Amino acid sequence: EHSDDNLSYSIKTRNGTYLLKLKKNKKLLSDDFKLYTYGENGKLQATPSKNETHCYYHGTVEGIADSTVALSTCDGLRGILYIGGKWYGMEPPSTSSTFEHVLYELEDEQGIPFHCGVLNGSLEHEMFVKQSVKYTFSSNSTSSRDRLLREKRAVLPQKSYVELFVVVDHNRFLLKNSDPAAVQKETVELINYVDGMYRALNIQIVLVGLEVWTDANHISVMDGSAGDVLSRFVSWRQKDLLKRSRNDVGHLIIGRSSFSGSIGMAFVGTVCSHVQGGSISTLNHNKMLRHATVVAHELGHNLGMKHDDKRCPASYIMHSTDNGSRNFSTCSADDFEAFILNGGGNCLRNPPKTSSVYKEPVCGNNVVDKNEECDCGKPQECSNPCCDAATCKLTPGSQCAQGLCCKNCKFKVAGAECRAKQDVCDLPEYCNGSTAYCPDDVYIMNGHPCSSSKAYCYYGVCQSFDSQCESIYGKGARKAPDICFEKANIKGDRFGNCGMKGGVYKKCPVQHSLCGKLQCTSVSLQNLPAWSVVNNASGVLCWSSDFDLGSDIPDPAQVHDGTACGENKACLGFECLDARYLGYSCDVKQKCNNNGVCNNNGNCHCNRGWAPPFCNQSGYGGSVDSGPAHTDTSLRDGLLIFFFLVLPVAILTAVAVFKRDAIRRKLCRKSRGQHRDNNGQEPKQGNGASHETGNTQLPQDLNDPQSQLDQLSEMFLGNP
């Protein structure tokens, strides 16, 4: 069956006939989205995305509950189906003159084995073992996806939005015959599959940008380990991409074979980080269904998810080896929930801006698309009283339906804090009173001194040895003496090194030893990670640890970039360099009149009592980026003054003017009556009679304001 927006396909298989009910995903690419490529001269080009033939559909299998279908009809039927608790792939065979297709169970698909990180025989890090598991399950029970679909509102009641930017390297571009349109088509198809996998966790993956390195690779992707390439990519994202495209996390697709068996790598829990928000994967084949699991896995690390392995031993997406699963375990749900509850992912709560959405503008997809005022999903699942799910319009009287600056369907008042500062180097943001969205996250400029000028701010965090030691070994842990760093890090082993190159630990030169593996003292034995060693350096016990999280997860026990390693020096890329390389370029005295600090945009964030943009006039603090730092009560105060002072006086004056003749007559009668009473009471004088003097009561002065008020009160209210 066929119509403009709907398709139905009858698929005959050995297990019976399936009727696919599909709905067109209209305008899959937003009208204003641009595909970034590079010209022959290396100049960045932004061209409108082409959507000549619409061939993307979503739907269900008729008669099968909780079924899901995501298909492309561009070249036959190609996509994924979730039927009866199992995932299936569908695609046409490479050589077929008729409309034949292959339907196969994805879990049974065989491919080249790869690992994501945990090495054979290694022990899981203690921080993983201690994670609480709230749910029980077995491979014979209801599928993890079905359980998550039922429990997602209990786990994460608020939808999360991941704004993903994908970069495709030059090698993959060549594998697609140097055709940017072909790269775009397969990438959109890939992320469409990934998005479907995350729906069970109440997470929406939104593709906000795509860049293809059509001229050459802009970082080296063939030299070094996966960790080396990941470090280069996040550095490029930080210095180049984020300056022109806002995103929560970036992913690089590399057209090459694996890195010694590892086809992906990611930082853990860095989805909103400007410096480490990234992941990579290798792709040298055209099996996009299978690669979607790899991308979903690495993105899961960015979202705070660890490997399932021993906690949830069945086959799930976050298992350390490829098993073909398209389902997340409840352990992954626990990890993501803990990540959010512990303050992570603060960028995931704001729905993506309409102009950034690289997505199908359809009412009911939980994304506020062009010409929509809100979108709370399908009518049967929407519980938002501010949004009409059928029309994606705000309900009568509502100003907003979602966002950090929306409460009870109304904009929060200007000055209401919508994102609190998380560190001494972070800065708060405030609502502006006219939108539901919180301003972009800003922080103190990199390189600004902190901790009594003993440390530096770096991407919103005051980086110090002590704080990092406490984060790993518990409260009270402190930086070990410099001799501990020198003796350990010049060895170049798992407990002392300056990173890895080509799978081999690098020895630290003495001058850079403070920027290698972290060395701590005053460590509590109860907080030791699984793999830890202690060395005696000049009578001091120095502890270091190796997390062994796998080849796809960088070691968190390396000294953080931005950490002070000497006077006017800081660590960057395992080297102790001049602190000016952190990028601090603000003269606070000249620019902010010594009444504030510079944020990461180079603008002044003024102290309380001073007003932006230059902190040279009185005000309430904040910056041009943070929103107003003062709650605007002018409307409330004005209404109070009007209703309790201006309005009563106006009413009283109007009544007095309207009844002025009656008031004048009453006042005159009262005055004459008092005068007669006084004359009648005057004592008579006789001969020889003594005359006694005293106070004589005179008429009240009619010009006395208090007298007039008393008489007006008596006239209108009566005598008490």
UniProtKB/TrEMBL annotation:
It comes from the Eukaryota. Residues 360-446 form the Disintegrin domain. Disulfide bonds join 418-438, 606-615. Pfam families: ADAM_CR (PF08516), Disintegrin (PF00200), Pep_M12B_propep (PF01562), Reprolysin (PF01421). CDD domains: ZnMc_adamalysin_II_like. It is found in: Membrane. Residues 582-616 form the EGF-like domain. Residues 669-720 are annotated as: Disordered. GO terms for molecular function: metal ion binding; metalloendopeptidase activity. InterPro entries: ADAM_Cys-rich, Disintegrin_CS, Disintegrin_dom, Disintegrin_dom_sf, EGF, MetalloPept_cat_dom_sf, Peptidase_M12B, Peptidase_M12B_N. GO terms for cellular component: plasma membrane. One of its GO terms (biological process) is proteolysis. It is a single-pass type I membrane protein. Residues 680-711 have a biased composition (Polar residues). SUPFAM superfamilies: Blood coagulation inhibitor (disintegrin), Metalloproteases ('zincins'), catalytic domain. Residues 160-352 form the Peptidase M12B domain. The chain crosses the membrane at residues 638-658. The keyword Transmembrane helix applies. This is Disintegrin domain-containing protein. It comes from Chloebia gouldiae (Gouldian finch).
